[in-house]
Write a structure and sequence with these properties.
Elements (H helix, E strand, L loop, with lengths): L1 E4 L15 E9 L7 E5 L6 E4 L5 E11 L11 E5 L1
Length: 84
């Protein structure tokens, strides 16, 4: 397993204040840019997520946030983790 953490966004992509943050989506996979797995977090107050049951290997993770209307942001910058 690996634990991911982040700082909640405070602005929309256009720079306006983010007033209706509803949650996050975490995406991951073993091929950079190809995210074959995902998890949805329907709570904007959560800022960590544990990804369990990972086979040994190198994984790339990205996250998005979404608002109350379900509008999802672009992917975050990727982060890589090695699972032994």
């Amino acid at each position: 397993s690996t634990t991911l953490s982040w700082t909640p966004p405070t602005e929309n992509e256009d720079g306006s204040p983010l007033m209706d943050l509803a949650g996050y989506k975490i995406y991951w996979g073993t091929t950079p840019g190809d995210y074959t797995h995902s998890a949805k977090i329907n709570n904007a107050g959560i800022t960590t997520y544990v990804v369990d049951n990972l086979n040994p290997g190198t994984y790339e993770f990205v996250a998005t946030s979404f608002n109350a209307d379900g509008v999802e942001s672009d992917y975050s910058a990727p982060t890589t983790r090695v699972v032994n």
